[in-house]
């Protein structure tokens, strides 16, 4: 894989992976699991909509023609680990869509007479391994399987022309599990059209001819279950016969081998036409104590997966030196518990190194000479280095380990325990793709990044923010900060050419969309699966998802996975609702608009009320009603002692100017003493006793009246006798209380019109509420009601008139 190819692949993985996710989310396969149910036959109540059916590990002996009559949509069927002996030829007639059929580990006996295949012509996968087939002779029914891609078989003997009926079937993979193979006729694999053949070996003499045919006939060969601990050298001998090898990719799986045999086998492969060697699940006996260097070769790929050693006493350096010094373009040792990898002894031609899921530490590729750490300088041509899933701890130390890899463009340090301690980092100059995901890095990591980085993967770390003052990453195009602790969108000051920004699964509540104005060329943003708070602050971000851009000032930004993966987490009313459905009126978020909406109607209502009050004289009515209510309340609550009313025979003494006598006689007396009033009123014209002085009469009338009513007017303040009456009433007020004086304003009486000697009147008018005589006849009834309520009382005795008017 070239650096350019790796770069394009990385961009696709970072940005376009959502298409795959979206597509897979639309696949709804209905799976029925009836495995391990101790069934002796296929149930008759299967769901007609079943697409995948698992009947493995039961006791089914026979398949009948009606067993799958209702499952017309069936595509995947697993009948492995049963006791099947017979299959009706019409069994799969109702299932024309069947693609995958697993009949392994059963008791079928004749490969040449499997007539059920005639109605299963859409099969792409068929597994018939571990049955009771004596011969590998395939019947003519197999030639109908034109769509077959993967086929698994097993038998006791293989002869020439056994595979004649699949000559026209182009397989991707043919699996031959031959644990009971007793005879193999050389050339028995002839006629098979398969890209890859997988052979489970018996470790018997028959293996040599079988392997020889496989290496001669197939491009990819996988040999499984080999035990090379003996002195058998046939594999090495076959590999050295270059003319007898057509295979380009050899797989050795589940093998047990001595170290010297492994090195001989690998060296033989390196000298053969085989360009790719993959070893997996290998157990190495008698590991080395001394260096064993590989031969020169032009091998493209060597990979070892899940390798273990059976001894604890060996030289790890010698073992590592053998592999790291291989002349292969792609070297991979994965899922193997090695804690160190050495540096090649001479300039290496390796372009891709993969040490994923091992146990490597920060000392990788380095050595110690005289207590001084020596860095590796012989991996100059490495373009892709993968150290994912190891025990790497210090990012700054790792930068020193790779600083001399001048061609390095793709570096994967994910799934480690990396931290950064603010030390100077030393990266090579050509790194374009850096994967630091799933570590323990904080925001300080932005001070330890290669300037040349184009794609940066920092997902699943401990980053809370992106510092604005950071080392400029002018080449950065794609940044993945998913699964961190970000609370807001990052500022793009340090990477002005950023195009792709991924922020899935952070702590974004209300992202500040204005921050995106610092990202002038940003095209794709993924902020899905965040705990959004659906309030006014989120409206701009929602508008961004709706395709409204940034208020027309920036190009439209695509939000990946919008709208289904953008949901509210707060408040409860909007919880789990999509942001697209979330809506708050403009008026609820605009304070000025809200204030205007409230104040304008309020001002209008106030103006209307004031106008109505002015027109209808409502304040006067309210004042009069208030006075009436107070008078009624006072009458109910005030406790008047009988001795207080001793000698009182009048409800009120009326003091007025003689010039206002007409109003008294025409208005006041009829309304208070008439049938509607029933009050006893004392007035000087009628109730003064002749022969007594005026002062004596005034004092006598004031003392015999419960209230004193003063009818105020301009005439009143000019009357000397009215002044005397007011004077005596004010003294009487001190003994009877403040409510013994009632002021009636017959006409407007400004303060400046009241003479200074009427200071008591001024004081009363400032302290007491007075009744104003309304000129409007409609208001006069309320006026008299208030006055009557203020004067009403139960007197002990009625007045005896000593003199008629």
From TrEMBL:
<dbReference type="Pfam" id="PF01582">
    <property type="entry name" value="TIR"/>
</dbReference>
<feature type="disulfide bond">
    <location>
        <begin position="425"/>
        <end position="448"/>
    </location>
</feature>
<keyword id="KW-1133">Transmembrane helix</keyword>
<keyword id="KW-0675">Receptor</keyword>
<keyword id="KW-1015">Disulfide bond</keyword>
<keyword id="KW-0732">Signal</keyword>
<keyword id="KW-0325">Glycoprotein</keyword>
<dbReference type="InterPro" id="IPR035897">
    <property type="entry name" value="Toll_tir_struct_dom_sf"/>
</dbReference>
<dbReference type="InterPro" id="IPR017241">
    <property type="entry name" value="Toll-like_receptor"/>
</dbReference>
<dbReference type="Pfam" id="PF13855">
    <property type="entry name" value="LRR_8"/>
</dbReference>
<feature type="signal peptide">
    <location>
        <begin position="1"/>
        <end position="20"/>
    </location>
</feature>
<dbReference type="GO" id="GO:0005886">
    <property type="term" value="C:plasma membrane"/>
</dbReference>
<keyword id="KW-0395">Inflammatory response</keyword>
<protein>
    <recommendedName>
        <fullName>TIR domain-containing protein</fullName>
    </recommendedName>
</protein>
<keyword id="KW-0812">Transmembrane</keyword>
<keyword id="KW-0399">Innate immunity</keyword>
<dbReference type="GO" id="GO:0004888">
    <property type="term" value="F:transmembrane signaling receptor activity"/>
</dbReference>
<dbReference type="InterPro" id="IPR000157">
    <property type="entry name" value="TIR_dom"/>
</dbReference>
<feature type="domain" description="TIR">
    <location>
        <begin position="648"/>
        <end position="791"/>
    </location>
</feature>
<dbReference type="GO" id="GO:0002224">
    <property type="term" value="P:toll-like receptor signaling pathway"/>
</dbReference>
<comment type="similarity">
    <text>Belongs to the Toll-like receptor family.</text>
</comment>
<keyword id="KW-0472">Membrane</keyword>
<dbReference type="InterPro" id="IPR003591">
    <property type="entry name" value="Leu-rich_rpt_typical-subtyp"/>
</dbReference>
<dbReference type="GO" id="GO:0045087">
    <property type="term" value="P:innate immune response"/>
</dbReference>
<dbReference type="InterPro" id="IPR032675">
    <property type="entry name" value="LRR_dom_sf"/>
</dbReference>
<keyword id="KW-0391">Immunity</keyword>
<dbReference type="GO" id="GO:0006954">
    <property type="term" value="P:inflammatory response"/>
</dbReference>
<keyword id="KW-0433">Leucine-rich repeat</keyword>
<keyword id="KW-0677">Repeat</keyword>
<dbReference type="InterPro" id="IPR001611">
    <property type="entry name" value="Leu-rich_rpt"/>
</dbReference>
């Amino acid at each position: 894989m070239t650096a350019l190819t790796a770069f394009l692949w990385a961009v696709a993985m970072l940005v376009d992976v959502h298409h795959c996710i979206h597509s897979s989310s639309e696949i709804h396969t209905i799976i029925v699991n009836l495995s391990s149910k101790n069934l002796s036959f296929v149930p008759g109540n299967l769901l007609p909509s079943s697409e995948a059916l698992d009947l493995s590990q039961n006791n089914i002996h026979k398949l009948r023609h009606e067993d799958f009559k209702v499952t017309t949509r069936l595509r995947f069927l697993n009948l492995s680990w049963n006791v099947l002996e017979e299959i009706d030829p019409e069994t799969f007639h109702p299932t024309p869509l069947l693609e995958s059929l697993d009949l392994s580990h059963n008791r079928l006996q004749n490969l040449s007479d499997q007539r059920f295949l005639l109605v299963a012509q859409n099969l792409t996968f068929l597994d018939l391994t571990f049955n009771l087939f004596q011969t590998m002779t395939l019947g003519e029914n197999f030639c109908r399987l034109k769509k077959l891609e993967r086929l698994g078989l097993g038998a006791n003997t293989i002869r020439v022309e056994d595979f004649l009926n699949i000559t026209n079937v182009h397989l991707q993979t043919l699996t031959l599990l031959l644990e009971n193979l007793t005879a193999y006729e050389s050339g028995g694999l002839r006629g098979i059209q398969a890209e890859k053949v997988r052979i489970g070996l018996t470790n018997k003499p028959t293996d040599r001819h079988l392997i020889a045919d496989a290496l001669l006939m197939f491009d990819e060969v996988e040999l499984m279950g080999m035990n090379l601990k003996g002195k058998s050298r046939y594999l090495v001998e076959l590999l050295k016969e270059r003319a007898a090898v057509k295979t380009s990719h050899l797989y050795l799986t589940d093998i047990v081998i001595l170290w010297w045999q492994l090195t001989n086998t690998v060296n033989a492969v390196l000298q053969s036409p085989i360009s790719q060697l993959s070893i997996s699940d290998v157990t190495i006996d008698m590991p080395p104590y001394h260096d064993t260097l590989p031969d020169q070769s032009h091998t493209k790929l060597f990979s070892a997966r899940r390798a273990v050693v059976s001894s604890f006493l060996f030289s790890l350096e010698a073992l590592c030196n053998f592999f790291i010094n291989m002349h292969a373009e792609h070297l991979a040792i994965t899922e193997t518990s090695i804690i160190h990898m050495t540096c090649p002894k001479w300039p290496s031609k390796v372009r891709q190194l993969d040490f994923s899921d091992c146990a490597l530490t920060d000392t990788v590729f380095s050595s110690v000479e005289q207590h001084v750490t020596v860095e590796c300088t012989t991996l100059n041509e490495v373009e892709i280095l993968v150290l994912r899933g190891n025990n790497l701890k210090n990012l700054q130390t790792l930068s020193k380990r790779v600083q001399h890899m001048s061609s390095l463009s793709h570096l994967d340090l994910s799934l480690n325990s990396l931290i950064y301690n603010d030390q100077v980092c030393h990266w090579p100059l050509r790194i374009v793709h850096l994967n630091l995901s799933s570590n323990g890095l904080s925001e300080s990591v932005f001070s330890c990044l290669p300037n040349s980085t184009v794609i940066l993967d920092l997902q699943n770390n401990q980053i809370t923010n992106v510092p604005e003052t950071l080392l400029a990453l002018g080449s950065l195009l794609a940044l993945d900060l998913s699964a961190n602790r970000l609370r807001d969108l990052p500022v793009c000051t340090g990477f002005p050419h950023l195009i792709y920004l991924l922020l899935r699964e952070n702590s974004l509540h209300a992202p500040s969309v204005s921050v995106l104005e610092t990202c002038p060329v940003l095209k794709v943003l993924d902020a899905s699966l965040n705990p959004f708070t659906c309030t006014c602050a989120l409206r701009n971000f929602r508008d961004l998802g709706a395709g409204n851009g940034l208020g027309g000032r920036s190009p439209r930004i695509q939000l990946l996975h919008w709208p289904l993966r953008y949901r509210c987490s707060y408040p409860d009313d909007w919880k789990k609702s999509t942001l697209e459905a979330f809506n708050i009126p403009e008026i609820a978020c605009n304070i000025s608009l809200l204030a205007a909406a409230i104040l304008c109607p309020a001002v209008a209502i106030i103006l209307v009320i004031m106008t109505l009050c002015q027109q209808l004289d409502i304040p006067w009515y309210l004042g009069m009603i208030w006075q009436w209510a107070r008078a009624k309340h006072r009458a109910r609550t005030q406790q008047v002692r009988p001795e207080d009313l001793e000698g009182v025979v009048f409800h009120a003494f009326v003091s007025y100017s003689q010039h206002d006598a007409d109003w008294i006689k025409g208005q006041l007396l009829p309304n208070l003493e008439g049938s509607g009033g029933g009050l006893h009123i004392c007035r000087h014209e009628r109730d003064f006793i002749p022969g007594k002085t005026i002062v004596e009469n005034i004092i006598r009338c004031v003392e015999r009246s419960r209230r004193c009513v003063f009818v105020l007017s301009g005439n009143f303040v000019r009357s000397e006798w009215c002044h005397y009456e007011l004077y005596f009433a004010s003294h009487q007020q001190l003994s009877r209380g403040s409510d013994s004086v009632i002021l009636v304003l017959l006409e407007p009486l400004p303060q400046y019109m009241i003479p200074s000697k009427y200071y008591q009147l001024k004081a009363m008018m400032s302290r007491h509420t007075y009744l104003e005589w309304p000129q409007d006849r409609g208001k006069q009834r309320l006026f008299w009601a208030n006055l009557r309520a203020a004067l009403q009382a139960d007197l002990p005795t009625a007045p005896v008139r000593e003199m008629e008017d």
